[in-house]
Write a structure and sequence with these properties.
CATH class: Alpha Beta
Strand content: 15-25%
Structural class: alpha+beta
Number of strands: 5
Radius of gyration: 18 Å
Number of helices: 3
CATH architecture: 2-Layer Sandwich
Strand order of the largest sheet: 1-2-3-5-4
Bound molecules: adenosine monophosphate, zinc ion
Order of helices and strands: HEEEHEEH
Helix content: 25-40%
Largest sheet: 5 strands, antiparallel
Number of domains: 1
Shape: globular
Distance between the termini: 21 Å
CATH topology: HIT family, subunit A
CATH superfamily: HIT-like
Length: 148
Amino acid sequence: MATAVKHEASCIFCKIIKGEIPSFKLIETTHSYSFLDIQPTSKGHLLVIPKYHGAKLHNLPDEYLHDILPIVKKLTIASGLAIDGSEGIGYNILQNNGRIAHQEVDHVHFHLIPKRDEKTGLIVGWPSENADMSELSEYAKELVSKLN
Ligand code: AMP
Ligand code: ZN
């Protein structure tokens, strides 16, 4: 069953969807809207958003999520980023949830960020260590037991 489109009057991205503030629109569908980021971290940095006001990914009805990734794919191809092989230009798809996770706008958005060089585009900090395999195994069991 279709879910009602929901807007939040004070939300900057809801205002963009409604045309109340301008944007450089790229693709619009019944469920999604995409536009250029006005503070790009690399040339061609763009955003794809659901036409549904949810702050975080888990707030979205699945029908909105279903619409988004094919749009990201189309925009990736149109942006000249669909290059096979691991060398050369790459791209990151980024979706932040919560201030601690670097989310500034509380309306779900997927960034498409071209990565052409070391200095522009996404720069990732990724602290990691080798996992204890028995702890991993326990955690996997715990998580799977919560899925249904
Ligand atoms: P995040 O940190 O994941 O919440 O990213 C929010 C993004 O929205 C940033 O990259 C901003 O540059 C971008 N942004 C904020 N306001 C606008 C706007 N009016 N038009 C286009 N992009 C925007
Ligand atoms: Zn919104």
